[in-house]
Write a structure and sequence with these properties.
Elements lengths: L2 H4 L10 H14 L5 H21 L11 H12 L11 H20 L29 H12 L4 H13 L3 H5 L6 E4 L2 E6 L8 E4 L2 H14 L18 H14 L20 H4 L11 E2 L2
Antiparallel strand pairs: 1-2, 1-4, 2-3
Helix pairs in contact: 2-3, 3-4, 3-5, 6-7, 6-10, 7-9, 7-10
């Protein structure tokens, strides 16, 4: 069983009701301004710290009693936890859990909550340094190799996923959430409608004609009429970021490329004019736009 599934639920932590109440109140507050995925990550990070307090610090019955010593004891406890399909949590997971916990303390202190400790018990230096640089966009040669490898894949969904991400620069979360009416005709050209998401705006991206044909072929073969998503799995279930990442790396391995982080698709290929010039907010949408089915 993976590490996240081994953590106790909030109900199982209810023996410390004040700690649970403060953390859940915080989650309710950030849910008003952050995306669901970010709130889920914060929930996981706070439950992890609450589980540590439950196990190793029985004297702590409220968040206000947390001291610097508790944080220092928590870090090796967290580092020894099993990870997602790994023997130990990764450096990236450590950085995320500790960074999220630090923001919890910083925010409740800034908000003036009575439950906050006398001072924030964490510092930026508590977060481990990532052991790899931030992902860079694929260069033209690598993108061309990846495109050829994707087109040679026997599974049509892999070809569609890699080509759409490569040619549009979509985030994986945006790709998996595309609705069935996302492809629209504006004037004489096909465009992809991307709803409001992490980038906080509703926008339209020009679609390569080849993508229109590829998407239509996949939907004809695998998507039943009335399905709400543009590109679900063959069994009708929604794609998730882990599955899409596996698609990318299967094509990447066939192209002889190292591990490809999905963020490397942030720049459309082949290069085109600025995406800012191609983004049309709903309020500026031209008349005569028709949904493609």
């Amino acid at each position: 069983m993976s590490g996240p599934l081994l953590l106790p639920t909030w109900d199982e932590l209810d023996a410390r009701p004040e700690i649970v109440a403060t953390m859940r109140r915080y989650l309710d507050q950030i849910a008003c301004v952050l995306r669901p995925g970010s709130v889920t990550g914060a929930d996981l990070a706070l439950r992890s710290f609450a589980a540590f307090l439950f196990e190793a610090a029985p004297e702590v019955t409220s968040v206000g009693q947390v001291t610097r010593r508790h944080v220092e004891d928590y870090k090796p406890w967290l580092a020894a936890r099993p990870g997602q399909n790994k023997a130990r949590v990764t450096i990236a997971t450590l950085a995320h859990r500790l960074g999220t916990l630090r923001m919890f303390f910083v925010r409740i202190d800034e908000w003036g909550w009575e439950e906050a400790p006398p001072r924030v018990p964490m510092f930026p230096g508590d977060l481990p340094r990532q052991d790899h640089p931030l992902p860079k966009a694929l260069d033209d040669a690598a993108a061309a190799k990846l495109l050829r490898a994707a087109q040679a894949q026997s599974r049509l969904l892999i070809r569609v996923a890699v080509e759409v991400l490569l040619r549009t620069g979509l985030r994986v979360s945006e790709f998996t959430a595309l609705t069935a009416d996302a492809v629209v005709q504006i004037g004489a050209a096909p465009w992809l409608h991307v709803p409001v998401g992490k980038l906080r705006e509703d926008r339209y991206l020009p679609l390569h004609p080849h993508l229109v044909v590829l998407i239509a072929d996949y939907r004809t073969a695998h998507v039943p009429a009335g399905h709400p998503l543009l590109l679900p799995r063959e069994n009708g279930r929604a794609l998730d970021r882990h599955t899409v990442t596996r698609f990318l790396n299967k094509a990447g391995a066939a192209a002889g490329l190292p591990h490809i982080h999905p963020h490397r698709y942030g720049t459309p290929w082949p290069p085109r004019r600025s995406t800012a010039a191609c983004r049309w907010r709903r309020s500026r949408r031209c008349s005569g736009t028709a949904a493609w089915t």
